[in-house]
Write a structure and sequence with these properties.
This protein has 310 residues and is α/β, with parallel strands linked by helices. Helix content is 44%, strand content 14%. The chain has 9 helices and 8 strands. GO terms for molecular function: oxidoreductase activity.
């Protein structure tokens, strides 16, 4: 039998932040970390949905040590406010799970003018991680940053000449580029941490095809009812559960032996099954591309990590 949530080591005394923890794999990830004793912060855009998730977790995990803090990754002012105001025991952070994301949405812009998928899936988490980095480094050995990518990253390489797809917007290409950006970010962060001698581990995960609301949100936003119903049916018939989809994130965050720049995903055809090392496109290991994306991300967000990372 493969690795399951029961194999998560004891997390007592540790603090975790899970973005997008109000539903889907984010909710499961937060619940299971809390079940193992971590003080878990639900970082969510919607306060109402976060409170519902908080109540659900408390029902399923009596005595869970959880808290809610508002965060909108599509608004850098919200990212900065979260980083400034979030309360962490001892002002240290052991686990940051960059889980929140959007998928295949119609053309939209963030509050800062970024293409919505690149802004929410990459630039927001990039800024958040940089702002929280001092507290992650203060946690010492065992601290990890896990960024959730997708098996569909292979559909599109990041184009630094058109990062916001001003020339021509295609929703699935935009999604693939943002998920490739997640892996390039992890790769470059791992390189910088290794060069500085830090024990902080930067890893990535992908959930396979998991039953969440991501598949239907895009068609719903445009009123494409047939497409929405088709996506919902496909999800019911084919997808694995959110519980199974969360396992790669949980493994990357807690399993012994997860090294820098690891990419964890489902065992069976990148789609479903217990977590293991996942295939990734060659361009996500390109040092030059990851460095150039890093520099562009610092410029766009105004969040500079420093070189080398202290």
């Amino acid at each position: 039998m493969g690795w399951t949530a029961q194999d998560i080591p004891d997390q007592s005394g540790r603090t975790a932040i899970v973005t997008g923890a109000n539903s889907g794999i984010g909710l499961v990830t937060a619940r299971e970390l809390a079940r193992k004793g971590a003080h878990t912060v639900l970082a969510c855009r919607s306060a109402a949905r976060a409170r519902e998730a908080e109540e659900l977790i408390r029902r399923e995990v009596p005595g869970a040590d959880i808290a809610f803090a508002p965060l909108d990754l599509a608004d850098l002012s919200s990212v900065r406010e979260f980083a400034d105001c979030v309360e962490l025991p001892g002002n240290r952070l052991d686990l940051l799970i960059n889980n929140a994301g959007v998928m295949a949405l119609p053309p939209r812009r963030t509050a800062d003018g970024f293409e919505l998928q690149m802004g929410t899936n990459h630039l927001g988490p990039f800024a958040l991680t940089g702002l929280l980095l001092p507290r992650l480094l203060a946690a010492g050995a065992g601290a990890r940053v896990v960024t959730v990518s997708s098996a569909l990253h292979y559909t599109a390489k990041v184009d630094l000449t058109d990062l916001h797809m001003d020339r021509r917007y295609r929703r699935w290409i935009a999604y693939g580029r943002s998920k490739s950006a997640n892996l390039l970010f992890t790769h470059e962060l791992a390189r910088k941490l290794r060069a500085s001698g830090s024990d902080l581990v930067a890893a990535a995960a992908q959930p396979g095809y998991a039953a969440t609301n991501l598949q239907t949100r895009g068609p719903a936003m445009e009123g494409r009812r047939i497409a929405e119903r088709g996506a919902a049916l496909m999800t019911r018939v084919v997808a694995q559960s959110a519980e199974a989809g969360a396992l790669p994130s949980l493994y990357a965050a807690t399993a012994p032996g997860v090294g820098p720049d690891s990419f964890i995903g489902p065992r069976v055809q990148l789609w479903r099954g217990s977590p293991t090392r996942s295939w990734r496109a060659r361009w996500t290991l390109d040092d030059r591309l990851s460095q150039r994306l890093w520099e562009a991300s610092e410029e766009l967000t105004g969040v500079r990590y420093g070189a080398p990372i202290p």
